[in-house]
Recover the amino acids of this structure.
């Protein structure tokens, strides 16, 4: 909205040309989302508390979680509002990539909202039945995959880039649709599984989202893409504003979600943010780098898969409890220690992922 307005005003007042710079609009996206979070956050927390939309805690989980019962949940709505408004204000709304990532994010947020609503408002402990949740995730993930495949204009848009290797691109063909689907749905569920401790999921999301913004800027800039030896995809750089909105909204939410949390994001936030990271990685052709940078999400998801598989095959559990962060809680690690160490791991992995831009 503001982008179009400043574009019009620039015809008469050259000072408004500064808003054509993508980097400035990305910074404004961060600040706008952060400001919205700070302004809306307290009111949302009060509203959720008033309607008693609070966290329920399993009896078989870590005993330290019993004190979290009743903490306002569905705070992910704050993140989605901040991201959506900031993106709409500062993005070029004629850019189809912006609409793809924003639409997928909000649709996965709707799936999460239904799940949270059933569990927290309707008091149905099952929430949205797993097969229905997975069905709608699959529908939206496949829809995005088919659309992106259909609008691809260059081979680079559907090739798999191998990190740390120069000029190694794998033509995927229809396999692009399968990969895109798996990345979007898989990342969505992985972030959701990680969201179990105060601030554990949101800061890694911020860091990975910010790093994907760097990739998007490089991929969308013909000179940088050529210099770095990565595919150039015209127009994809515009999603940098969306990445900035994730950073701002995530940091704003962390203000209230830091230990001890005043609010939890719930599935409405976790499923949506995971899907957003998945779409961004697909757009910038860095699916494998997402696997590296989102290593914490991968570890959490794998711990659940390993735990379930081991129990079904042998009747024994590998971990004291899954996802992985609960295993360390039951080993006696204080919650803040687990959170900060997982953050540190993410910092290292994000730096490794960014290094792939240059090391080939």
């Amino acid at each position: 909205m503001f982008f179009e307005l400043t574009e019009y005003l620039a015809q008469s007042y050259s000072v408004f040309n500064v808003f054509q710079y993508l980097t400035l609009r990305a910074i404004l996206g961060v600040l706008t989302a952060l400001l919205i979070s700070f302004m809306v956050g307290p009111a949302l927390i009060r509203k959720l508390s008033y309607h008693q939309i609070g966290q329920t805690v399993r009896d078989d989980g870590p005993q330290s979680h019993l004190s979290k019962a009743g903490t306002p949940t569905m705070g992910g709505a704050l993140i989605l509002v901040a991201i959506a408004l900031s993106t709409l204000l500062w993005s070029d709304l004629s850019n189809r990539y912006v609409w793809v990532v924003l639409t997928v994010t909000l649709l996965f947020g709707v799936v999460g909202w239904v799940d949270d609503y059933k569990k927290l408002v309707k008091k149905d402990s099952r929430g949205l039945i797993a097969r229905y949740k997975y069905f709608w995730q699959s529908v939206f993930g496949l829809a995005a995959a088919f659309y992106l495949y259909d609008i691809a204009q260059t081979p680079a848009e559907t090739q798999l880039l191998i990190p740390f290797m120069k000029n190694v691109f794998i033509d995927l063909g229809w396999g692009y649709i399968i990969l895109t689907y798996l990345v979007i749905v898989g990342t969505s569920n992985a972030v959701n599984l990680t969201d179990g401790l105060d601030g554990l999921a949101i800061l890694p999301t911020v860091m990975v989202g910010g790093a994907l913004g760097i990739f998007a800027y490089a991929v969308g800039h013909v000179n940088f893409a050529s210099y770095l030896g990565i595919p150039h995809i015209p127009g994809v750089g515009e999603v940098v504003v969306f990445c900035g909105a994730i950073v701002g909204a995530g940091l704003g939410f962390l203000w209230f979600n830091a230990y001890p949390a005043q609010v939890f994001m719930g599935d409405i936030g976790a499923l949506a943010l995971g899907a957003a990271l998945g779409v961004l990685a697909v757009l910038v052709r860095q699916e494998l780098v997402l696997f590296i940078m989102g290593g914490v999400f991968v570890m959490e998801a794998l711990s659940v898969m390993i735990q379930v598989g081991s129990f079904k095959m042998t009747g024994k559990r590998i971990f004291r409890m899954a996802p992985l962060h609960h295993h360390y809680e039951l080993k006696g690690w204080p919650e803040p220690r687990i959170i900060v160490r997982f953050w540190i791991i993410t910092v290292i992995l994000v730096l490794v992922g960014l290094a792939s831009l240059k090391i080939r």
